[in-house]
User: Fold these one by one.
Assistant:
Number 1:
Amino acid sequence: MTIGKLNRRGFLALTGGFAATAALAGCGGSGSDDGLRLVGVADQQKPLDELTKAYGKVSFNASYAPTDQVQTSVRTQLGAGNAPDIHVVYPGNGSAMSMAQIADANLLADLSDQAWTKKIPENFKPAFQKDGKTYIYSAGSSVIGAVYNKKVFAEAGITTLPTTWPEFLQVCDTLKQKGKVPIALGAQTPWVTQLITYALVPSTVYVKDPDFDKQMADGSATFADSGWVDALEMYLDLQKRGYFNDNVNGTTFEQQTSMVATGEAAMAIQVSAVLPDFRKAADSEDDISMFPVPGGATADQVWIPAGIVVGVGVSARSKKLAEAKKFIEFLGEQKNINAWAEAVACVPLVKDASSKIDPVLDPFLPFMEGNKAVPFMDQAWPNAEVQPAHFAVVQELLGGETTIPQALAKLDQTYRKS
Amino acid sequence: MRGRTRRFLLPPWWFAAPALLVYAVVVLYPSGAGVVYAFTDWTGIGDFSFIGFENFTKLWSDEATRGSLVNTLLLTVAIVLVQNGIGLLLALGVHARIKSRSLLRVIFFAPAVVSPVMVAFLWKYVYNPKPNEGLNGLLASIGLGSWRQDWLGDPDLALWSVAFMVVWQFAGYSMVIFLAGLESVPDNLIEAAMIDGAGRWQRFRHVTWPLLAPAVTVTVMLSTIGGLKLFDQVYAATNGGPGYASETLSTVLYKQAFVFGNYGYSTAIALVLALFVAAVSLVQVHLLRGREVTVS
């Protein structure tokens, strides 16, 4: 037996050496040359797989994970100073992994010298820029609207889509009469709770006060004394009228999706980024379409929410900063913006003749081109606590545990925390 | 001579050194660093400054954290009582000389080896609020349709639904500990009690139960600690909702750190939780050890 011949010193050297090697291997993984490290969220895998392959100039070591896991791991890596060269960044402010929060800590590389940044439309600049410098790349914007099952609408004899709030209520009523759940709501999944508010607030707040975000920031406006009250009243009115499924707080996003796909429910108010989930669950992809939720009393008072989709940034401490930035520059080329936008069914940041936009988004384009689109509200919020507080108060409102004034007071209080 | 042999057989202390080193690097150092961060306003990234006891005073005034403390205590009491009660009954049941007892032991213990997150996902199906699915469907099919509930969506029920799920998973675990205790109750004592005319209940109350005390100490302590730091099941099943109805200290500290970016405050909560768990465990061990008896 060889081990019998091993003396004490030799054994120590062996075990100590092994432990030291293991410890070093654990710490120093990023030093080896295995290409650009890239960490994204699951939604980004499709476009990034395609575009990293098309780039061809460097190799990539890419990984993708669900949002909450990425939030945990990438932020920890950012704190430890060993963040991936290119990583997921959320546009604007309002979450722990958002552009403004990470740029504040000087952990994102400035991309302002790249050509594509000059073409960012004015109304989207707050999502991309802090103090005039661009820190995030994103291929375009997604919208929130009613994802509906065309067959169910046809069976209920609905031929024209609603363009005002009274018409919308009328459509819901017709659907209910026909024994369908008009709107499926999966409020057990926290992020789903916010979508109806977001769909309505552009019409109840921003039509009158396009500068509402600025007024909130300078303290001259509050949620509790704004069109947010109307939006939440409309939200709860839908519940009171019985237009939602039963037990919304116990229903998940997956159940919501399947209810619309199978025709048990007629529609769900959702973000266009999840269209693929609804299409996958439906008998035929063509059964699923989308229309803007009309939150105004008249058609000219309807605005819609359109938010920049989750993007990527370059770690300011990357050892391969130049290479990483070059890849972002490549992503900023028009054909690649088009490719990314097509892969995630969003509206490209800038369009040219070759841009292909998912036809179900057509009804939304006039709003976006007519400056009647507002970024998702959380992107302008100053800290990461307001959005989860919104999830929680909506669940409490739907469960009858709180009132609208109390809920909005809580949001105001959370907003002012920072 | 014998003493020398024994000392010779004892491995030198430095055999443990590699393991201790790893333990120090992986556990002791981060824990120590965590204590330091609890006194800062660190956001997880960037610089931080020391803010004294501010995080701790905030902890007492923060409604959400206080609410989660109450939830955590309620959950723990419910889990400790019900899980160990059922565990004891299961243990007494499968300790009896019945044919299928080995199979039953395996079945009752099986959920304990499944990952808690998997269990939570499975129970989300069981707790489906639709009237004809999962638990609701079962209730309807046995004529208890009026008992159907929105198990995870009703703010008054969500916490108890989670507790039940945990009990379902770990009752078998308590059973195994009680079984080990039951094995150590000498048959001759039971027989002597029988000859003295003690009935089933008297034999349990005056012979088995006192001798089970060490097992009770272990299982009550383990379930208390498990209850106080309950995270996976709550996070996967309700994410603390609806609203804040099923938030526990662990989910709050997770969210404070990883969702809100308040790492300093989060480590303060973690520190208080750790000290609290330690204090409760010490008191429990002291009280429960006191009633342990041995056969002499």
Number 2:
Amino acid sequence: MKRVVVTGMGAITPLGNDVGSFFEALSSGRSGVRRLEGLGTERLANRVAAPVSFDPQPLFDAAKLRMLDRVSQFALAAAAQAVKDCGVTLGELDRSRCGVSLGTGMAGAQSTDDGYRTLYAENSDRLRPFTVLLAMNNAPASWIGLEYGFGGPNLTYSTACSSSAVAIGEAVRRIAGGEVHLVIAGGAEACLNFGTLKAWEALRTLAMEDAKDPSASCKPFSKDRTGLVLGEGAAMLVLEERDRALARGAPIHAEIAGYGLVTDATHITRPSVEGQAAAIRAALADARMGPRDIGYVNAHGTGTQANDGVETAAIKSVFGETAYDVPVSSTKSMHGHLLGAAGAVELVAAIMAMQRGLIPPTRNLAVADPECDLDYVSSGARRAPGLAAVLSSSFAFGGTNAVLIARKDS
Amino acid sequence: MSVLDRLKQLLERDFSIPPASLEGAATLESLDIDSLRLIEIVFAVEDEFKVTMPQDQGEIRDRVKTLGDLADLIEGLGAAKAGD
């Protein structure tokens, strides 16, 4: 099997619209969570979210923009950053052997919501002519493929909160198996519309607004956690076969060393210690690494009652006594839960932590929970100059658990 | 203002088509209007002229080769005149 490396990264996030400012904010413990204002928000019981501040006008001409849902705008913008970062000139690639692999939970949810508003709220039949093209789940990946003329597999994965971890892991396997040389892989989500927010609210799994500080509403691993906070954004990575990347002198951010994929098959929402632990074990086995090799875990850490205790138990089940030695943080405390984009955004955070030797904290962990007793890096970013391997977990509604391990290239 | 003139205005304003290229005899192809763009234009035309264009895309394609054809089709559908 061929080795696979990350040569480019791009991100559009609630904490900044490039990888550098995203990580800068994370490591300073800044939160992108805030109270939403505007259309219909007075009808929301859970008004906090982590929106992206993004102006598409400079990036796309008007005719193109009419065809791009917000989720595709994010995906294209992040992909452009990643391609620029990897330094490849398209002419040097065999583009029939290049692909796109993208995870999204709800894809063009904004356009779907707009369409329903027109139909049912305004009682009009004047649906926008491109509603189907805007809303279709594979639109973000397709636009990236069109942009770069990639003729290899163009795939969209939708496994809820693990979508983009799966998209990256599956792309790694295709490259490792020799089918493709380069894949733009990651995830995108843009679901902060009224209908989607109400649907999540109905599930009673969203965080209540912190009365004193809305930006502190997402409290992973804290006893007073009340749920997850939805976010939006995208992260795309250029994954390449290592020898080819080395041959063209590409900058190498990390090697994707392991991918574990295990499905609970027990309950549509309830997480399982066994399933999460099995996915972590599978990733370690794939990387031929042991728990002691992992220097940082970027946790799934949603801030729900159900997840954080189960995840802690899963980490303990795999890491044993060393579980207490490995720093574990949930950056969702700052950027919210990006659903289908979460795995990609958090892998970028974990790779940046390794590159900068700096572990981002878990924000808002103020009240200890006896069920959550690991080292959650809760008092600010921590220097970790020797960080050589990181693990990023994504566990999903539907039960698809995906874990990625990245290590310094050597 | 004639239907054709209003159509030219619409295409320039909403679709950024250079006014110099907008003549009655200009083909959709020469204006770089592909099938997808045409559907968008049809939607805008329905709003602008308060008409209902044929639902069958094939019928529109058969009847509309040039800008003038499109103006004729709109006129035939009884477009509301500007200022009416």
Number 3:
Amino acid sequence: MIVDLLILTALLIFVLGAAMKRDTVKAAIALALASIMLSVLMFRLASPLAAVFELSVCAGLITVVFMSTISLTKPLTVLEEERLHLRGRHFAVLPILVLAAAGLLVMVGIPTDLALPQAASAQDVRSVLWNERQLDLLGETLVILAGFFGILVLFKDKPTGVGRTGAAWLKAERFRKEKSDETTKVESNQPDPAIRV
Amino acid sequence: MAAFLIFVPLIGIITLNLPFRFLRRFAYGYAITVAAAQAALAIFLPLPLWNRVLAHFFGLERLDLSADRLSLVLLLSIAIVMFAALQVGCFTIRSGKRRFEFVNLVVLAVTGLNGAALVHDLFSLYVFLEVAAVASFTLIALERDKLSLEGGFKYLVLSAVASVMLLAAIALLLMSTGSTAFAAVHAALLGSSNPMARIAVASFVAGLCIKGGLVPFHGWLPDAYTAAPAGASVLLAGIVTKTTGIYTLIRLMSSVFGPVPQIQAVLLFVGALSIIIGATAALGQKDFKRMLAYSSISQMGYIVLGLGAGSALGVAGAVFHLFNHAVFKTLLFVNAAAVEEQTGTRDMDTMGGLSARMPVTGATSVVAFLSTAGVPPLAGFWSKFIIVVAVWSAGQHAYAVIAVLASLLTCAYFLSMQRRVFFGVLAQEFKDIHEARLAILVPEVVLALITIGVGVMFPRVLETFILPIRSVLG
């Protein structure tokens, strides 16, 4: 019981660190540590499969993805750092809010006499996943597909930077054509001939 | 049969994205066919056939997907809005590549929404709502300029908060009732007074209010609707926000939680607040789409007000207003897209007298605004009337009066919009514009005809559409 409380407190501290740390690398590491605490809790609750997933995916893979994304960003300028420091003061109230919420929950009364379902063994989890929750697997495949499209659309090439509406785009195009002497073929911006009015 | 509504779009997306360039030409035609087929099925296929085991073919019958009357209304709305969004998007986006991406994302979003309409399990509902949400984030940020990214990011953050609340609620309900299926949770919740179940229900409703953009959780909605490209705004305003927020609320209130007096009180309050604040904020807007976004918030308040009335009539009115709002709000956003494309701006103060050069757009916008304001005999009048009657007969006289008075506010901001944009003297800089292209006129006319038709033929609609819904909620 005590061990669980200690792990939960550590989890809370790391999560608050992830939310409040102004350096993104330190925040990502705090998130990884919080995931590790969570996976330790899952081991203690006799769910090794869930714990392994949490450890490998959240603490491992997600942290790697965060680190590689952070490595693609530029370091902060002096002005940006100052502004970040000033704005960061707001977050000091976060731990107080968390403690207040915890106190409120304790007062309202969390029932401790729950009839929890039996923790499933690895075999049970696999059979449940494939036999009973197929619709969720389909849904999750769709989410991954949607996320894949999101990355393709948002990150594949540079933003065009022209106006968004058709008329504004047309004006910009005409202006650009008048300005340049040689015919620049902006191939990707030609209207698709297959789609007719 | 119901499973096809998810698998056919999914197989279509996978096929279209195979590495053969020539397939891209079929994207738009394929998506329009899917929308038309879905609309036809929703109107003409009788309900028992929806749940028949046509799907024995591929072992799809093991998936727990089935439709009832409420789902059919939503599926029809999804099909209509998808059609309008594809027309607007494919004919306002210039880049062929962007257009292909747009079609893919719309089909993906619609797959998620169809799934949300057809499932009978809390967790599956959550997963399919996430599909629609992820597709929506990308749709908002499609043009990747600063405003779109900001609008998409705001939606992403607030939607993530709402998802956390939904997940926590599902976990708590699983712990207190032992299952996530609608029927099982409903049965287990009937007798118990478990405090965890109550926290779960409250968390669920709060999460859905954030997703639905109800006041005071509406912070993301005006920015997201305004910053999104024209086709994405049509889809978002027309159906995505409604399904992820309001439809899910209706489904849960009727199939899972049952009539809980505290939640009804909260819904009545939130609904009335959304109506008033949405309408008041819309009065002061200069940007056309931003005004329509606040108007959406206000109309969703009406739907939630009807839901809070607690009676079967209230829920029927809410569902009817959901359908009507999908139609007339989509029409308004299509008009906004047409105006924006022709004039290059959304600032209403610089426009004027556009209906001289854009008569069809002007006329259909008048139909849409009269329906929104609840002027008979258009469709909006009937649904608002049913909601007001339901709220009044539930004893909530004050809320009913607020709903009626807010119609005046609705009339006010729309008249102001019409005066600034369509009526009056044609602004000099716009004297060379012409009517929107045929591809955008078609959805305008179709949506206007639906609004007028549903309103004029209301007695027929009452028997085939509204009264059967009440039997769902028996």
Number 4:
Amino acid sequence: MQKAVIIDDERLARNELKKLLLEFPEIEVIGEAANAAEGLEKIESLSPDLIFLDIQMPGKTGFDMLTELDSAPHVIFTTAYDEYALKAFEVNALDYLMKPVEPKRLADALQKLQQAEEKEMAAAMAGINRGMLTELDQVFVKDGERCWFVKLGEVRLFESVGNYAKVFFSTHKPLILKSLNALEERLDEKVFFRANRKHIVNLRMIEKIEPYFNGGLLLELHGGEKIEVSRRQAVKFKEMMSL
Amino acid sequence: MYFSLVTFRDRFEQGGKKEYLVSLCIYFVVGIIVTHLLRLILMRANWSKLSFNKTAAIFIVGVAATGTAFFYMDNIIEHNSGYSYDKFVNKQRLAKAEKMEQQYGLSNSLYYADPALAKDSTTAKAITDIKKATTWYRNDKGEWKREDKTVTISIFYNLLLIAIWLLIYILYHYIEKNRNNQIDRLKLETTVKELELKTIKSHINPHFIFNSLNSIRALVDENPERARKAITELSNILRSSMQAEKSETVPLEKELDIVKDYLALEHMRFEERLQVVLDIDEDTLQQPVPPMMLQTLVENAIKHGISKQINGGTVRVVADFKDDHLELLVQNTGQLSDNINTSGFGIKSTEDRLNLMYQGKAAFEIKNIDGNMVQSKVIMPVTL
């Protein structure tokens, strides 16, 4: 059973989707919201597995709402007709439905979701750390016109830029509105290591380790980034690695 | 350089090849310089934009001035160059004249000083023959003189040359201009067509159509009566958007029917978030208006105004006469954002349509008014 929240500014659109979802007993609609602010509230209080999200809404758009979440649940976008929004997606990164929704397309989207879920369940059985973000959690990142869902495991590095953090993954490095300290609290410390005041690195993405001045270390990541580990953190790093 | 052109046949019989070639070169160089000067002046004067009469006047003055300048410049340069073919030929002719004088047995006679002798028929004939053959004659003091008719002929030839050249130049540019005009007109026509098509297409926003259909599907169970009505409303809008390109204007009443259907559908989507106020002067109902124009404004009021407000707002449509004009107002809750100003397609296409149809007698403006409202206003002439 999956818990779902529908976020759409039109009551009739929400009703129509609920009606369609009656055909799928594995999905339970536990809440609805009429705009991004309500949506955020519902997601935080109900922590659904899945949200159906309209893109064009009064106040904030669906995209804007997602960027404010620490960790995005599974998202199926619903939109009537919005070429710009659809262009913004990194293709195949996520699923979207066109309103009026075709029941067959809905079934496909839900099935795809279930497959992804099963894979994650198997992987997540190993280490369960409630409240912490694991490598399997995804964040929604928007940089100008482009959007991505990024699995934390794919992130090599977080770099502090004022109140923002720059997220390094594949060839991209967009900004997210989160401080490095806030991120550090939520990230799994077994995977993500605070190398210095400005950087959090993914330990699985380290290519090379070299000694550095003052008893520090220099880490080279898969993407070629070179990150200095301060002396204090280097001690901690060696402790962790020696285990 | 008249001689170089009229004495082709016998040009080298008496030598002077070098003089001939140098003079010919000078002739062509001066010709090119002079005609280019004329061209420069013509281009400065922007002749292609002048009337036919003015062009004709410029043509005559230009030919006269350039032809004369051509002749004198050429002459001065040739004479100073030391290679004047004219001088060379004249010298030869003088020699010939002296020889002829001998042949006629006049060389020892002072015939030129004695009018009686000069009138003698054989002497007079000899003088005329010599003059004809060589252009040279003696004045009454015995000095050789030339009867130079060639100056006028020469100027005439130069004028003719320049005239032909200028005629070709003007004709060429005339044809070129005409062709360019045609191309420009074709381009303009395509742009207008494109614009028209875009306007028609933009009349009904696909986002609106699909959202409406989605709402209707939800209503089929919830409120079948309303769903049936909504289908009629949507059909009306689609039909009139397809017919919009067929007629220049429609009565305001017809346009308002579409606006009402449109607002009814949007009300179905937004429910209590959309309040509608219509404020229509009955007398304006028969006034002709461009089809789908008011509708576009109302659609923008919803798209940029109401749909962005979490708590929704009001759309107010006003039609009234004001100072001999028909005034249409669409007001909506919201604020104009700075970056969308005037560059938006809806605004631009409305302005373009009004300009095309009423040639500056109609006006459009959009601005913030009191109480968190945006107002778009169209003023157009009243038709009696």
